[in-house]
Amino acid sequence: MTGSAPAQAPAGQPGNVPAVGQPAPDFELVNQFGEPVRLSELRGRAVVLVFFPFAFSGICTGELCELRDNLSVFENAAAVVLGISVDSKFAQRAYAEKEGYSFDLLADFWPHGAVAERYGVFDPESGMALRGTFIIDADGTVRYVVVNPRGQARDFAGYRSALAELSGDSTAPADPSFNRGPETV
Fold first, then answer.
1. Residue 169: what pLDDT?
2. Domain 42-166, architecture per CATH
3. Given strand 104-107, what is the order of strands in its sheet?
4. CB 3.0 to 4.6 Å from 130: which of 85, 90, 121, 149, for a disulfide?
5. Candidates 29, 50, 60, 82; catalytic one
């Protein structure tokens, strides 16, 4: 499977983004309920890591609502969705409750942005994660990477294509029922 470009942090940003084919860096963070989530404990299932700058911000809310509204795409691919930002578990919980997210939101709060930094998507100047997506296969290998510049939402059609290819169904047609959400977010 080939990942989307760019496979490195945007120009001017430090970071070594794991490339397609490399092992995904392991981590443990708490979710919005304070429960620990360790990436390596999810082996045997595909995992979609969605780094986002901040809870309650406009573009982030639009992107995560698209995930929420299209969760069946991920469930049908037997993929676990994990949203990650530098917000605290308390902010993540309030955000998940307000927006009705049923997937885990992980707090990369302390040490501040350490996991985002390991994935090459932490911006130390602003103290936030960039919009990075990593799809990891059941063996823990990175199979899809995209890092978008600040202010640019991710193309959600990429998720479906990457998941179809990961499951061996690279000929799967685009799903006309896939809810792209509001285009103005």
1. 62
2. 3-Layer(aba) Sandwich (3.40)
3. 36-38, 28-30, 104-107, 79-85, 46-51, 131-136, 142-148
4. 121
5. 60
